[in-house]
Amino acid sequence: MSLAEPAALPVATSAAPRLHLLKRFTSRFKASLPAYLLLLPSLVFLALFTYGAMGRVLIDALYQRATPKAPVRFVGLENISAVLADPAFAGAVVNNLIYAFGTAVPSIALALLFALALSRTHAVTSALRAALFLPVLIPMVAASALFLFIFLPNVGLLDYYIGRLLPVLPNWLGDGDIALYAIMVITVWKNAGYYMLFFLAGLQAVPEDVMEAAHLDGAGPYRRLRHIILPELKPTFLFVTVIATLNAVTQVDHVFVMTQGGPSNATNLVLFYIYQQAVEHYDIGKASAATLLTLAVLMALTALSFRTLANREGGP
Amino acid sequence: MKLIDTLWKDAPLATRGEITPKLGFALTVLLAMVWLIPFLWMVVATLRPASDGINAMAELMPSLKPTLDNVRDAWEIGDFPRYTLNTTIICTGILLVQFVTITLAGFAFARLDFAGKTPIFYLFLMQLMLVPVLLIVPNLSLVAQLGLYDTLTGVMMPFFASAFGTFLMRQAFEAIPTELEDAALIDGAGLFQRIRHIYVPLSMPSFSAFAIISVTSHWNDFLWPLMVINSPDKRPLTIGLSVFTKTAEGTQAWGTIAAGTLMVIAPLLVAFLIFQKRFISSFVTSGIK
């Protein structure tokens, strides 16, 4: 280097801290190496099937094939606008919102009722808890097989026992105005017992002495619930709401078995729409665009509930 | 009245005269019975002879001439032994790999200090929200690229890393006193020896809690295997049951459907009735899986 002489001094002085930094960095890395090796197997699968998958959704959403065999072509945001313009997708989103609200609210309310009624532990409450928890264990497909008969017109369980009281027998799964609500009944039946467990755990945290003080002050059951128990259960509510929302998007097996999204898309939900685009129409571009939109909404929800989750896990 | 007195015998004195809690309890009892009706129908319909006719199918009173014909028919129409084997292979395969990945990662988070610990922790935490079922489309193309389309390995792979399991193990490992590890360190035990002989044996309750959650959730998986599996002989129980239900529905063979459903859920129900307490406490920890 021709400039060596004059530059030598400043370079020499500034190189020392830089070298020092590098050294610190490598020694820190060396010290961390065992941890990285232990994390490697998990990180490989997370990279492939979670974060890599998100990257692929992002890329696939930008490409399109004219026919299943044609080469891919860059289309930019066309897939996204095509999905947003698709009335079937808009319908699935509306259905999914109704489904999310209509399953989360009743199942959480029932879960709270069950937990309050069964909070003391003895043989009777244990048996009742087990009965309410049983649907949680079975596959959604098995639940669908049972409810297929329950909702069967004329000879099914519902019509056999309750239908006699109605002037006209509704076709529970065949009527577009009713089918979505019939589907929601199954979800509530299946999930209320699960959420009950979290409320039971949450009720343990209600301080005994505050309850005793409330008894001494003559607070009735309603006021104890409103002013002591519910505020104490606030984190549980938030947490269960997040799970219920997530379930409303991901737990759609019964749509596959019972209605296939029908009649005329009345029970089509977002995940079923994605499945239809990918498997029935071989339209990976549109399926990816719909996945991307769903992920964006769930990520927003994640951001909202992140602090709660992080607190629950106790931080790093 | 005496029954109510026994149920409320440990309730605070001041609340024993209250009506509202008792009404809530009565409502819960009623609903618990309603909750059991689908199961009751399943058992009654399984044992009902076909000669009772379709109009008696919904009757919840058991038939006076119980028969196992429906079970035999279901067994013959559906390939249930094969489906059960496939589901068992899937659940076992996932669980064994998960045990390795969550033990190693859980240990790293619990006991080691390393650069980038917080961002990596959040990388795991995010996975709890990005449940694999949402990423079926990109994951299907990856599985196909890996040459694992229509294989049981392809069904298992997305679940090999588990953030929930990692957090569970981290918690369990953190509770183990460091003195035990220090003693082993003095004796010259290596990292893997310490994990294998100190941490793992002392964390068995957490492993079994995780096993319960993992096996029940993958026993029940439907959408993902539906996309990956094509050959009938590789179907797991859930897909087998849905195909079987479609076939039997056409012939209105509801007794056979009930018998098939019973066969699919029986293993889980039996396990639950035996290990009830353990199941319930595991599911409480499973809030995020």
pLDDT averaged residue by residue of chain B: 88
**How many strand segments of chain B?**
0
Q: Percent range for helical residues of chain B?
A: 55-70%
Number of helices of chain B: 15
Bulk shape of chain B:
globular
The count of helical stretches of chain A stands at: 13
Average pLDDT of chain A, rounded to a whole number, is 85
Radius of gyration of chain B, in angstroms, nearest whole number? 24 Å
Q: What is Rg of chain A? A: 28 Å
- For the largest sheet of chain A, list the strands in their spatial order: 1-2
Description:
The complex is a heterodimer of chains A (316) and B (289). Chain A is mainly alpha-helical and 316 residues long. Helices cover 75% and strands 1% of the residues of chain A. Chain A has 13 helices and two strands, in the order αββαααααααααααα. Chain A has a two-stranded antiparallel sheet. In chain A, helix 2 packs across helix 13, helix 3 packs parallel to helix 7 and helix 5 packs parallel to helix 11. Chain A is flat. The N terminus of chain A is likely disordered. Chain B is mainly α and 289 residues long. In chain B, 70% of the residues lie in helices and 0% in strands. Chain B is built from 15 helices and no strands. In chain B, helix 2 packs across helix 14 and helix 13 runs antiparallel to helix 14. Chain B is globular and about 75 Å long. Classes of the chains: A mainly alpha (316), B mainly alpha (289). The interface between A and B is large, with 111 and 112 residues.
